[in-house]
Amino acid sequence: MRVLIIEDDITLGKTLTQLLNENNYQCDLAENLGDAKYYLDIRNYDLVLIGWGTGDHNTSLIADIKKDAHKTSVIILSEDIDKESEIEALRSGADDFIRKPLDEDILLIRIEAKLRFGISNIIEIEELIINPEEEKIIYQGNEIELKGKPFEVLTHLAMHKDQIVSKEQLLDAIWEEPELVTPNVIEVAINQIRQKMDKPLDITTIETVRRRGYRFCFPKKIS
Fold first, then answer.
1. Burial class (CB in 10 A: 0-12, 13-18, 19+), 54
2. By the 8 A CB rule, do 4 and 61 touch?
3. Which residue of 2, 145, 158, 215 has the lowest C-beta tally within 10 Å?
4. What is the domain range of residue 187?
5. 7: three-class secondary structure by DSSP
6. Same domain flag for 89 and 132
């Protein structure tokens, strides 16, 4: 599960990152609104933790997250004790509101609950079903054998259907240390998708946009 932490208290942000990493979450830490928007543009998150005091645009940020990625859960971490702040956050689309100082055990339980009962991440397009949680693809009732990085590349592109995604964006979104791998790993993953899925099924799921990247284009029959 991937989590974005938006917190301008650097010490708290690092503490939260360490806590979640120790509990098998993949975390990115944004210390300001600009960094937060950067991460949200290049990656898909299961959960976003927002320090309510981070910047002056909390409500619009929540609305943007829910508009672009409605399946992402949002939890507010706030020092405010007034009821009005909680009401404002929840009305803006937040899924939960937790007051500081944080109890780490309670925070982990609340995160687990939101991810467990949150909206399904399953992608359904006509007869194609992609289930990221179970790493499973089903087409016309039959399961397709595609695992690992090719599956993650396909899923990321499907989540950004009809958008052009560059190699650099795919590397940043999927590989833990993108600076340590070469861009040709994307080409290898795309080729595996086409060999194991597109050609046997006589469909096209991904098209190459010259010099710009790749785009998920299913349904599109091969002529």
1. buried
2. no
3. 145
4. 123-216
5. coil
6. no
Same domain, 207 and 142: yes
Structure tokens at 121: 């991440």
Q: What residue type is 105 in one-letter code?
A: D
Residues facing 142 on adjacent strands:
139
Environment class of residue 136 by beta-carbon count within 10 Å: exposed (0-12), middle (13-18) or buried (19+)? middle
Q: Provide the domain count of the chain.
A: 2
Q: Is residue 166 part of a domain?
A: yes
Tracing tokens 């299961």 back to the chain, one arrives at 46
Burial annotation 162-201 (CB, 10 A radius, 16+ → b, else e): eeebbbebbbbbbeeebeeeeeebbeebbebbbebbbeeb
DSSP 8-state secondary structure symbol assigned to residue 220: -
CATH code of 62's domain: 3.40.50.2300
Domain-located, residue 47? yes
- Where a domain ends, among 117, 148, 178? 117
User: Which of 3-7, 113-117, 148-152, 173-177 is the least confident region?
Assistant: 113-117
The 10s digit of each residue's pLDDT in 140-170 is 988 999 999 999 999 989 988 878 999 988 9
- Write out the two tokens for 213: 């990247």
